[in-house]
Amino acid sequence: MKKKLFKILAVIFLPVVVIIITAILWPMPKIELSIKHDVVFIKSINVIDVKSGDILENRDILIKNNRISAIDTAGVLKVNSIALIINGSNKYLIPGLWDMHTHSNQHSEWLHHPLYIANGVTGVRDMSGQLNERDSYWVGSNERLNWNSELNSNKRITPRYVLQSSYQIDGASSVPDKFPEFFKLEKDEHVDSLLSFYKNKKVDFIKVYQQIKPNMYKRLALAAPKYGLHLAGHKPMFTSLEEAVVLGQRSFEHGRIFMFEAFPKADSLRNPKNWKAFFSKSKKSMVKDFNPKTAIKLMTLMKDNNAYWTPTLQTLKFEAYAHKSAFIDNPNLKYVTSIRKNLWWGIDVRNNKKKNLSEEGNGLSSDFYNAVKKQIKMANDIGVPIMTGTDVTDSYTFAGFSLHDELEDLTKSGLSNLEALQCATIVPARFVGKEKGYGTIENGKIADLIILNKNPLENITHSKTIDGVIMNGIYYDSDKLNKLKKFTQSISSSFHMNVKGFYRLLSSPLIRVQFAD
Prior knowledge:
The chain is of the alpha/beta class. It is 42% helix and 15% strand. It has helices at residues 2-25, 108-111, 113-118, 141-152, 188-200, 214-223, 241-246, 275-288, 292-304, 313-321, 325-328, 338-357, 364-382, 401-412, 417-423, 426-432, 478-492, 495-507, 509-516; strands spanning 39-48, 55-64, 67-73, 84-87, 92-95, 97-102, 121-126, 160-163, 205-208, 230-233, 251-253, 308-310, 449-452, 466-471, 474-477. Strand 2 (55-64) and strand 3 (67-73) form a beta hairpin.
């Protein structure tokens, strides 16, 4: 009887196992690469100066070896016959946009990179990383630097990875077993070991997270500059925003940083034993009892210390509207794998929908989101440098597409169309220390450019009217941009991609501890 049962099970499950293994091993397709042009000439286009908001009408632009060589009135510049000539009549030119809060993984080259380029996102800051071993899911500096190198040699379609991140440093609970102890950051000697390790990995900053201990955070902040590194990421829960700014953390992520600090019981939120429960109970007070004077003081401190803010409004908008079918039924879901939509995002949708429809949570997430938008206006008026970021691959953030939604939400927060564009161009370039090469359209700068059919200074949603993208000497016209979108749509719906994604999630010890937390 047992042998018969075993045979039946083998007949049933063996084909399934074979199919799964075949899907995992199935080769991934390659994106067709376009011709790289040494000389590109854009005729008669309207150039938007994102510094001043002026429009240089009817200009010719000469690009040589991926740098802007000359900008002049139409008809003045001369170009040889080998140049690629682009007709820019009645169109508008802006710098490539940067998304300063993303999370890339081992499948990003198929699922994210094409969509970034198709949406004019030419630069990203990845806020993820690895420990001392290659992870099955997350990528690290090795992969990202290789992507950059292959971009320059026209072997890959990818945005520029403008800074390299460590793995999120969040205390002992964030580090799986069998990894070096110094990643847990529990002893003084761990600080130098961790910083030395990531310096050797050519990392630019340490991604700090929520539960890092205050004493170790302070030691890390003080020691990082000695290694040429800086801190960026969450405002640690057990350290005040004031202290974190003074200690030199260079950027703070997400919209809640002032909400956590400017309500009557903010000090109680820093208790390591009950902060999660206390946050849930205090969310209403954060909105209702928000103290503008406290927030203004902190915003002024950030301005004075040149600390940047990446609000990632898309994450809060998702929480606010997870119960709204008009929001959830997003047409861009066709670019997302079924595994992610159902396994990761689906859980988030159900949890947030339940909260929003409960008696206690009714309208609370929406109020929180709207309160943060008001604070963005306050911070911007004071002079806090604000950067666009979307938190790809978080729930309902779509590579490339969500950057344009973030621009729109920044204007709905009170920023002008020009100021919103600056948050995705000049401000990030300045943060990275590459404003001499990026952020504006000027002679000598890298020619990462977007051609638009409509003027975004009139309406920020016109940033979506992309007619073409120029990057690394390659011209992606509208047909090529559509091909990039269709490529990712096809891959995301394939059986083998979904099996690969699920397998990589299960295989990653870093993902397992993140979900457990």
